[in-house]
Write a structure and sequence with these properties.
alpha/beta; Spore Coat Polysaccharide Biosynthesis Protein SpsA, Chain A; UDP N-Acetylglucosamine Acyltransferase, domain 1; 2 domains; seven-stranded mixed sheet; 14 helices; 26% strand
Length: 518
């Protein structure tokens, strides 16, 4: 009996299992405590070219007692995953309806997050930090902002890709397919299969990592690929434990004691949801209260063998458009589909509520998620902004980005984006302010005020709570934004705001006049 687990010294661990090998008794698994063993530099170099953190393996031999653990390195592994033979595809998302109005003028992966980043920076940075530098980004709806950010950050900033590249593939109309829009995640890749197949063959690509652009997490994708290789899997699904309140939002999986997926059910409800409940006691070392997380959800992060992906999209399931709702439920019956459990921080930010909560959670001390890690940093567009200027401010539990001007204001439990301006007497609490793309000089601000107009930023004595303020918003003086009536949903685009899940969302480029009360 053997239990293996991939570990990264810089990220939260996730357990993996080899095909054909069971867990043993539940009691034993609950007692199993796995530590981290650092690998020698030579091993990392031979395995990953020195670009990926070392891993460790824990082995429980058949004659071992419950208290006995034997540790070994991966020196006996027959096949190492090579990052040079791995390519990534990042899906730019659909209409982003659940993130509306933040997606009214931009694609979901282009939505600002954490003060100075964009959501696309998460999978892009994870790829680079994993040693994967052959990346395709599929774009479709409102893609201008996303394309601009990708160009500024990853194509025009001097990043050295050696033999890799970042290529943007925008939805296009083919002669034989009048409907040019992507019909789903699988269809997006299928429509460019002629480009991808030529590239994969030319570059000798063996494995394809498929990612989405609306999540917040840090992952070493090469550990996921290595498990995929170890299991000789056709498809590997990265999964995470979730509670009952969120389970119906995801594709759920059930798998056997070898990690092979037996069932995949997309967004089940009622009796179907109950049927996907699993025993998560084997994760007790990582999640604590196993009763709270009775489901295993797909993260929307997949690894495919090249030939398996091409066969699925071109032949076997050529009429099916979506991985989660159509292809994976069928593939588990005909292919070796494996699950890999990720127990690090992971948050899907595809709704206004989850996006708002994830941003504010960054201000907690200690934060469950850190954007900065010296070995695996997150990259974004180099803006060359000056330091933020603070004048007699009171700030508690907040993110303050570069290039801001804050004057005698109070900020609590909030995220302040780049180039934000807060005037005398402002109070912000539980607020995500995305900032601005431009600076207005003192002379320009004075001229606007004298003419009865509102400058970019927030005016004097304005009080804001439980709010998302999109880019370049102009909020006047003596404004109150608090949703004191607790309205859960409202549409007031002509007045510059919407309300979703009780959160007021000020539109991009909106103007909120002096004295307004929301």
């Amino acid at each position: 009996m053997q239990f293996t687990r991939a570990l990264d010294a810089n990220t939260c661990p996730h357990p993996t299992r080899r095909t054909g090998e069971g867990f043993g008794s539940e009691r034993l698994m609950e007692r199993l405590n796995i530590g981290v063993i650092n690998q020698e530099k030579s091993l990392k170099s031979s395995c990953f070219g020195g670009r990926v953190a070392g891993t460790a393996q824990c082995v429980l031999t058949p004659d071992a007692s419950a208290e006995t653990l034997q540790f070994q390195t991966h020196s006996s592994r027959k096949s190492y995953a090579d990052a040079n033979r791995v390519s990534a595809v990042i899906l730019g998302g659909g209409t982003g309806a659940q993130l509306f109005p933040l997606t009214s003028t931009r694609a979901t992966p282009a939505v600002p997050v954490g003060g100075c980043y964009r959501l696309i920076d998460i999978p892009m940075s994870n790829c680079f930090n994993s040693g994967i530098n052959k990346i395709f980004v599929m774009t479709q709806y409102n893609s201008a902002s996303l394309n601009r950010h990708i160009h500024r950050t990853y194509l025009g900033s001097g990043i050295n890709f050696t033999d890799g590249s970042v290529q943007v593939l925008a939805a296009t109309q083919m002669p034989e397919e009048p409907a040019g829009w992507f019909q789903g995640t699988a269809d997006a890749i299928r429509k460019f299969i002629w480009v991808l197949e030529d590239y994969y063959i030319h570059k000798d690509i063996e494995h394809i990592v498929i990612l989405c652009g609306d999540q917040l997490y840090r992952m070493n994708y090469m550990e996921l690929v290595q498990k995929h290789v170890d299991d000789n899997a056709d498809i590997t699904i990265s999964c995470a434990p979730v509670d009952e309140s969120r389970a119906s939002d995801y594709g759920l999986v059930r798998f056997d004691d070898t990690g092979r997926v037996l069932q995949f059910f997309e967004k089940p409800v009622g009796v179907d949801l109950e049927s996907m409940r699993v025993d998560t006691s084997f994760l007790s070392y990582a999640i604590g209260d196993i009763q709270k997380y009775p489901y295993i959800a797909s993260m929307g992060v997949y690894v495919f063998k090249r030939d398996a992906l091409l066969d699925i999209l071109k032949s076997k399931y050529s009429q099916l458009h979506d991985f989660g709702s159509e292809i994976l439920p069928r593939a588990v019956l005909e292919h070796n589909v494996q699950a890999s459990i990720f127990t690090g921080y992971w948050e899907d930010v595809g709704t206004i509520k989850s996006f708002f909560d994830a941003n504010l959670a960054l201000t907690h001390q200690p934060s469950r998620f850190e954007f900065y890690d010296p070995k695996t940093p997150f990259f974004t567009s180099p803006r060359y902004l000056p330091p933020t200027q603070l004048e007699k401010c009171k700030i508690k539990d907040a993110f303050i980005s570069d290039g801001c001007f804050l004057s005698e204001c109070r900020i609590k439990h909030s995220v302040i984006g780049i180039c934000s301006r807060l005037s005398f007497g402002c109070e912000l609490m539980d607020t995500v302010m995305m900032g601005a793309d431009l600076y207005e000089t003192k002379e320009e601000i004075l001229k606007l005020l004298l003419s009865g107009k509102v400058p970019v930023g927030i005016g004097e004595n304005t009080k804001i709570k439980n709010c998302i303020i999109d880019m370049n918003a102009r909020i006047g003086s003596n404004v109150v934004i608090a949703n004191s009536k607790g309205i859960q949903k409202a549409d007031h685009p002509e007045e510059g705001y919407y309300i979703r899940s009780g959160i007021v969302v000020i539109l991009k480029n909106a103007t909120i006049k002096d004295g307004t009360v929301i």
